Amino acid sequence: MPDQNLRIGWIGFHQEGIPALLGLKQAGIRLEAIITLDSNELAKRSAAVSYADVLADWDTPVYRVRSINDNSSIELLQSLNLDLLFVIGWSQILGSAALSASRLGAIGAHASMLPHNRGSAPINWALIHGESSSGNSLIWLTEEVDEGGIIDQTEFPITPYDTCETLYEKVALSNHLMIQTLLPKLFAGERPNCKQPKTDQPVLPRRRPSDGLLNWNQPANEIYNFVRALTRPYPGAFSFLDGVCWKIQSCVLLPDVVRPNSAPGTILGSARSPVEDACGLFVSGGTGSVIILEIESSDGAVLKGRSLSDQPWTGKVWTNE
């Protein structure tokens, strides 16, 4: 039976949800409320977006919470009398009370082709593991993490040139397109829901900033994948040089024919070029080598281009502390 007057709410804070959220406004879809994180919690999250900037000209009420499962948040959800809740770009797992606060349920997105890569940071892990494809799944949320029924899925390749940022741009676009495809079905009374196949794959563990310590004993291709998996807007891969911690924001993977006979992590020399962005540091891995293109200190100072290649660091070794 058609249901054109659905009361819809939105929960999110991550940039991956913004195109879909803006798409609802462009399509003339009314939202009863938007719930995001308060400023203290927002400051702790990577790739967070201030909804105050995005929603400056909206007339939709915006609520800021510390946790979606707090009593005050549950009372808020219940008072909104929602039919449907979109949870896009949100890291907190909704408990049973939050999930049951909307009549039809809650719809979320997970950045993988479920049931593959259930769990935390799927895009980052896909890059770290050297996978050649990923995707995004729109699902009905349940208390079991990432196990709800599948509404729609979008698959996309992971190229050698992608980073976590470019892949999340693909995720953001797919959120927008899948939700735009879904809405007419929801308004027509349809409820797409395909049960996920069983899998023995383990749930991906959470990643913390301290997990970004770079292991120079890895093959060069794994170093390259690790760096591009953790670069901006995430905390970044890091290593130490003369006791100073540097985030390594980008690097170049050299072909296996380059086989330096040096300890892993040794700076073999400078890579110089008339092209500013091609300058950097030539560093050995466990096997193979990379050229570091950009590093950033803990106080935000950035070295790249000639300011990096001109450093007198040849022979120094990156370490774990």
Descriptive notes:
The protein is α/β, with parallel strands linked by helices. It has nine helices and 13 strands. The chain has helices at 18-26, 39-42, 51-54, 71-80, 96-99, 122-128, 164-187, 220-230, 306-309; strands at 8-11, 33-37, 62-65, 84-87, 105-110, 133-140, 150-157, 237-241, 244-253, 267-271, 280-284, 289-297, 302-304. The strands form two sheets. A seven-stranded mixed β-sheet has the order 3-2-1-4-5-6-7, with helices on both faces. Strands 8, 9, 10, 11, 12 and 13 form a six-stranded antiparallel β-sheet that branches. Helix 1 (18-26) packs parallel to helix 7. The longest helix has 24 residues, at 164-187. The mean pLDDT is 94.
Secondary structure elements and their pairing?
Elements: E1 8-11, H1 18-26, E2 33-37, H2 39-42, H3 51-54, E3 62-65, H4 71-80, E4 84-87, H5 96-99, E5 105-110, H6 122-128, E6 133-140, E7 150-157, H7 164-187, H8 220-230, E8 237-241, E9 244-253, E10 267-271, E11 280-284, E12 289-297, E13 302-304, H9 306-309
Parallel strand pairs: 1-2, 1-4, 2-3, 4-5
Antiparallel strand pairs: 5-6, 6-7, 8-9, 9-12, 10-11, 11-12, 12-13
Helix pairs in contact: 1-7, 6-8
